[in-house]
Amino acid sequence: MLRVLGVDPGLTRCGVGVVEVAPNRRARLVHVTVVRTPADMALEQRLLRIADGIAAEIDEHRPQAVAVERVFAQANVRTVMGTAQAAGLALHAAAARGLPVGLHTPSEVKAAITGYGNADKRQVQAMIAAVLGLAEAPKPADAADALALAVCHAWRLGSPDQVGSGPSTLTPAQRAWRDAQQGTGADSPLARAAAAAARGGARGVARGAGASSVGGPRLGA
């Protein structure tokens, strides 16, 4: 089993999720949390809290690799600066422990998890719940994004040149999403899950996939 810790960087909410992925790409939730800092706290103290939170999660769960969202330019400079600072803390924590790091853009993660690079957050939440066999979609979105990053990185490590290259190498989640988009494979539980996600029914997704709760913390806001 490959254990990967994913970090969805942010200054107010920094998602941290840990998954274990088998060679057949079946993924299991280990832990997920969100490190929060108040907006009225001094910047250096906010960064210290995030750094301590990420370091504590790495030390407790001992991943074999760390996945971090690749920061990209956007119109809101203040937001991207905070995201970049939090991402740097994650990179430092991993490097200090000799852990390999993978950087993935949001579109890469969306494509790996849903099969569609422009999927919205609701679709990512729904499909990561189905992939991990959770009874409900991870909340808040930062938690789901951190888990999606971890799963994406684990799948890419398993076959770095093959993920998403064609129908023969699609993951079950990708095949389900493709089938739902094309209106085929309706009898597949994951296809029903993907179709439910497209309709916005996150809770229906888990029921349609026949998902059940797994060991670990309850996902909440």
TrEMBL record:
Task: Kindly identify the residues recorded as the active site.
Answer: D8, E69, D142
Highest taxon of the source? Bacteria
Q: Which reaction does it catalyse?
A: Endonucleolytic cleavage at a junction such as a reciprocal single-stranded crossover between two homologous DNA duplexes (Holliday junction)
* Cofactor(s) essential for the protein: Mg(2+)
Q: What is this protein called?
A: Crossover junction endodeoxyribonuclease RuvC
Q: Where in the cell is it found?
A: Cytoplasm
Family recorded in the similarity comment: Belongs to the RuvC family.
**Originating gene:** ruvC
